[in-house]
Amino acid sequence: MLQIRKILLRGAGLEDAVVQFYSGANVLAGESDTGKSFLLECINFILGADKLTLVDEAKPYTHLAVEFVNSNDEIITLVRPTSGGKLTAYHVPIADISGSGQSITPTRKGKSKGPDVTSVLLPFAGIKEARLRRNVEGETQRFTIRTIEPLFLVDEVAVIDQQSPVTGKATFGDTAQKRALSYILTGIDDESVAAGEKNEIVKARLKAKLELVTEMLQPLNERFASPAELNVSTDDTELDTLLGSLTGELKNLATSRDALQERSQGATRNILKADSQLLGIRELLSRYRLLDERYTSDLDRLDFISESSFYFDALQEVPCPVCDQIMAPGHSHSPDSAARPIRESAVAEAAKIHAHRTDLAAAIHDLEVRQGLVEGEKSTIDTVLQSLNTELNRTLAPRLEFTTQRLEQLVSRHTEREATRVERERWQSLVKLQNDINSALAESGAAKQTWAGIPPKELGEFCTEIQAVLVEWAWKGTPRVEFDEKAFDIVVDGKPRQSHGKGVRAILYAAFTIGLLRYAAINGRPHPGVIVIDSPLTSYKKKKAESVKGENGQIDAGIETAFWTSLANTSKAVQVIVIENKEPPSEIAAEVHYQWFAGEAAIEGERAGFVPAKA
Asked: Three-class SS of residue 168?
């Protein structure tokens, strides 16, 4: 792809008239009669137009130069006398031009093979030589810059006129322009087209095709030929509404189920927590009761010690078995032992144990109370969990299953209807094809060749790209773009572009060219890479005329604002030059390469127009 970097007018003893452009979006705005539209004419002239109509201010200038740059940052400059004639090509910027350069013609004439603008610029833009079919007989012609000029150079008249944006002004031989669009969309030219088959061969092919179509129609005729079958109501809207309703209900039921399951899981977690607490409480109670039993055993032992000491003191005096003397107090044959201290110690120890036992009893009581509370909480949670499971299993689950089954039935019904619709459309298409073949066979004389149109896949993708542009431009509602191969123009929301007012026609022409540029850039298709649009937002009225063909129409203010915003986001890989009377918003002007021609009211520091004002 290529881009325009500079447009320059030069004349002896005159200050150069020069305008620069950059990658991405460029906006040139200004007052009327400042040379804005003349710039587009200069581009058209350098690309091979027959003549350049000079505005009064530019008549003293003798040469026009336009500098281009391609995707590889290579530069080429084309220079042409403003009076017409051949061009000179230089592979350097305008500022570095020297020597004689390469002489080229605007266009080739007859069987000439010499260099011209197309042979120089198209390879420079990465576009190979191509052939396009130019008539129904299959004869081909060369793909040139002039063939696609309406697709990337749009002047202020064409943008609002009712002509096709592909063919431009209506002419008898517009087949090549139509095939050029197919070439840009597919990247496949008509070089392999064979011209002029014999009538007998064409008819034999048609008969074979008719036989095949008739065979394909036989089972479909049995199904769709009766009027009753054709008039079957296909309440798709009602079915879609019901599907949407059931889908929403299913979603709500699933949400309710998830909520119940979440609550059930929470209750289960609380039950597990209660079980864990009860387990700990029971373990502590078991240990506390063992400790209480130990305390009881110790108290029994201490009671025994205390009582044995008492009984020992109460013993009668008897002879000592050792010395046979009366055993008076203090009589002993071993170290002294006193029963009283033992009894007192036992009593003191028992008192401590009783205190511990009292504390232990209080702790056991607290644990038993806590155990009761936890068991109560667990019982409550068990009841809640049982209620949740009942609601989930007996109420919600059956509703969910029923709704799912109903939805599956409706989806199956919808699928069957869609299959029937597709089959019916196929039958109608085959019937039409059968009628067309019969008509072709019935024609007298040489049969006209039939040619395939633009492939539906690429055409659909192109229309989708235009839709995306219109969405960016805040088109009312969701735009539906189709391509009318008869008028070779777009149809938006069921209304042909030519049927709109001139303001809307201009916007749709701009959307067409920008959509094509984007499509080509994304898919690597043959396109110059630059578009220049004059006055896409300004409704144009020819001088000395009351109106332009078609109804008047103004574009919506929201579209104008969105147009500028979208323009600011233009990729640097391509170039869009918009020439307008209207100024863009200041924030957009800061984002794009913006130039303003102030006209006669220009103050110091402002530019009056394309051609410098005389001192």
From this structure: strand
